[in-house]
Automatic annotation (TrEMBL):
HAMAP family: Guanylate_kinase
Compartments, record wording: Cytoplasm
Keyword flag Methyltransferase: no
Name of this chain's protein: Guanylate kinase
PROSITE patterns found in the cross-reference section: GUANYLATE_KINASE_1 (PS00856), GUANYLATE_KINASE_2 (PS50052)
CDD domains registered for this protein in UniProt: GMPK (cd00071)
Guanylate kinase-like domain segment(s): 8-188
Organism: Psittacicella hinzii
Residues passing through the membrane, by range: none
Functional description taken from the UniProt entry: Essential for recycling GMP and indirectly, cGMP.
Length: 191
């Protein structure tokens, strides 16, 4: 009898906007030569940033279509974040987990709560910025958002951080190399 193949793990990554979660995740994916990790591509109604590609960074959509996708039960979870909708597709996640591929979800604390309801075994990691001042500096340096968008994201940072204790692990993203090593070690521990 063939041995039942091992299922993939579900990793939830959250952090205040600008902390560096996308940077850490992209670094993981570029070092993942064997394709062990898959980053779930969410749907969003927020505007495309320069350099972002539809279907790669997000599936960019309008509100009407997003509401249709909710109706047709397409999402494992969805939430309103910074005045836009964001949602995680259900089908592809289940498929990949069955294939033994680990899934990375870059979602906010509301999404994390909802995913835990369906996947209590999910492993959740909260990434912390060194300080609020440094967080603002990173958002400014990134040069992807206008000043009022940055202000809105900063206003939400404290409330996002108030959920850090709901996560299995917390990683401080002070020095990128150090934080990355800790991030990889943590993921590998579960493999
Ligand atoms: N609940 C939920 N949150 C999401 C999803 N996709 C992205 N987010 C979160 O939405 C927030 C804003 O994401 P984004 O606009 O890309 O900004 P960034 O975090 O500054 O790069 C972040 O906290 C993401 O983790 C999703 O599918 N569901
Ligand atoms: N450890 C770090 N030190 C300094 N800058 C960082 C660090 N990690 C990420 N950054 C930079 O901070 C900005 C925000 O990072 P990003 O990954 O887009 O954040 P998030 O996905 O959490 O919103 C980017 O310009 C990125 O290059």
């Amino acid at each position: 009898m063939p041995k039942p193949s091992k299922k993939g793990h579900l990793f939830i990554i959250s952090a205040p906007s600008g902390t560096g979660k996308s940077t850490l995740i992209q670094k993981l994916l570029s070092s993942d030569k064997s394709g062990k990790y898959y980053l779930s591509v969410s749907h969003t109604t927020r505007p495309v940033r320069p350099g972002e590609v539809d279907g790669v960074h997000y599936f960019f959509t309008d509100v009407d279509n997003f509401l249709r996708l909710i109706e047709s039960n397409e999402f494992l979870e969805y939430a309103e974040v910074f005045g836009n909708y964001y949602g995680t597709s259900k089908r592809i996640i289940k498929e990949k987990l069955e294939q033994g591929i680990n899934i990375i979800l870059d979602i906010d604390w509301q999404g994390a709560r909802n995913v835990r309801k369906e996947f209590p075994e999910a492993i959740s990691i909260f990434i912390l910025p060194p300080s609020i001042e440094e967080l603002k500096q990173r958002l400014l340096n990134r040069q992807t958002d206008s000043l009022d968008v940055i202000e809105r994201r900063m206003a939400k940072a404290e409330s996002e951080m108030s959920h850090r204790d709901e996560y299995n692990y917390q990683i401080l993203n002070d020095n990128l190399e150090r934080a990355f090593d800790e991030f990889v070690a943590l993921l590998e521990k579960h493999n």
